[in-house]
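Translate sequence into structure tokens.
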Amino acid sequence: MNAKAAIQVMICGVDEAGRGPLAGPVYAAAVILDPGHLIVGLKDSKKLSAGRRETLAASIRENALAWAIASADVEEIDRLNILQASLLAMRRAVLALNPAATAALIDGNRCPVLPVPARAIVRGDALEPCISAASILAKTERDKIMQALADIYPGYGFERHVGYPTAGHLAALKALGPCAAHRKSFAPVRRILQPILI
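Result follows.
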């Protein structure tokens, strides 16, 4: 793999999963696809079924020249804000690639600080296969951790909504109060922790 990588421009795609949820870490992935191993069906992970994402994730792990997954935890999200935590997770993923990338394509309109040239592409997960691949890895890995958190903190329904502010999640949050997996800086959680004094 390293010999093949040495004669190629190593462009990685980068995407995150989990900016909107009220709970759990934010994940990011970076992927350098192998031009010699076409992976059919890559697209924005949100447009794929869970089963299809898992199948593609396995193919990406097997056939990509390099891939890496990283995260920023709830404490970092609350301390830095979700945007900066997402960029931190992206940076960690890119820096973990082996072999390293020589350039990066980032989904969205902001780039993390990287030691290689980077370009942000709005809706890049629908336009660039390497970003689509990163989207799929980040989403599948985050879903796994949310399943694990559902076992640790039962009653919130993390296994169903993976932390997003659904009606069921908001009702459970109100009834049970926040758990350690919740992002205290997010308004629905913050309002419960710090009710407005009348």
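Note: Residues 1-7 have pLDDT under 50 and may be disordered.
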